[in-house]
Amino acid sequence: MCVIRRMDAVLEPTKQAVLDTKKMLDESGITEQRAALAEAAGQAFYNTSRFTLRDLKSRGSHQQLLADFEDYLNGFSPNVQDIIDNFKFRNQLTTLSRADAIGTLINKFLDPEIDLSPAAIDKPRDGHGVRGAGAQVQRGQQRGSRRALDAARCRAADGEPRLPADRGPAQVRHLPCSMTAPAAPAVC
User: Fold this and answer.
1) Chain-wide mean pLDDT for the chain?
2) In which band, very low, low, confident or very high, does the pLDDT at 100 lie, cut at 50, 70 and 90?
3) In this predicted model, what pLDDT tens digit does every residue of 128-153 receive, in sequence order?
4) Domain limits, the chain
5) ∠ CA(182), CA(186), CA(188), 5° rounding?
6) How far are the Cα atoms of 12, 69, 73, 162, 170 from residue 95, in angstroms, in the given order?
7) Is the pLDDT of residue 182 over 70?
8) Which residues have a Cβ under 8 Å from the Cβ of 6 and sit 6 or more positions away?
9) How confident is the model over 84-111, as a mean pLDDT?
């Protein structure tokens, strides 16, 4: 859903131009429309559905929302259809609809705190000059490095699990390793 919202945010400014181009091409009987639609979108992908995620936010019944959301997904260009298919996203729609969760999911991704628009990714965040999504990736890599370091410190030279030097007995339950017995190898 993050990928879909990001593409939606990128395409929002050119949505009407894409719809106008699509209408003109259909009226002219032009069948090969990909290049013209991508040009209208200003991207290598486009969406010809009349909906954006913001439009879907206000849908009433979950049955109508499901139909409109499927129409929205079907409006993406073939290259995006490949992404949607590879993520098997459509397989989840019936389950989400039955749980009346599609609207909630859309609303969560439209929350201003989760701004995936190009403008948000280009502006500095946290006063450190690290940009939008890049900061999130960097923080994730730091956490991953910390986990690897913790895992390495869990083992002594003989391969036996040990408490990391910086953790006291009160913090044992928060070890990044699972140690079931003192002589058992650490499983991280």
Assistant:
1) 74
2) confident
3) 433 444 444 444 444 444 444 444 44
4) 2-119, 133-174
5) 150
6) 28, 14, 16, 44, 42
7) no
8) 116
9) 90
pLDDT value of residue 126: 55
Place of tokens 């009160």: 170
Determine the residue type at 132: G
Q: Are 112 and 5 in contact (CB under 8 A)?
A: no
Q: What is the pLDDT of residue 136?
A: 44
Cα–Cα separations (whole angstroms), residue 80 to 21, 43, 119: 19, 12, 22
Residue in 136, 142, 93 with CA at minimum distance from that of residue 115: 136
Give CA–CA dist 47/167, Å, rounded. 52
Q: Are 34 and 77 in contact (CB under 8 A)?
A: yes
Q: Give the amino acid at 50.
A: R
Report whether pLDDT(110) > 80: yes
Q: What is the pTM of this model?
A: 0.62
Those residues whose C-beta lies under 8 Å from the C-beta of residue 161, and which sit 6 or more positions away, are 154, 155, 177, 179, 182, 184, 185, 186
Q: Are 4 and 89 in contact (CB under 8 A)?
A: yes
Identify which of 115, 135, 132 has the alpha carbon closest to the alpha carbon of residue 9.
Answer: 115
Burial class from Cβ neighbours inside 10 Å (0-12, 13-18, 19+) for residue 76 reads buried
> Can you read off the two tokens belonging to residue 95?
């389950």
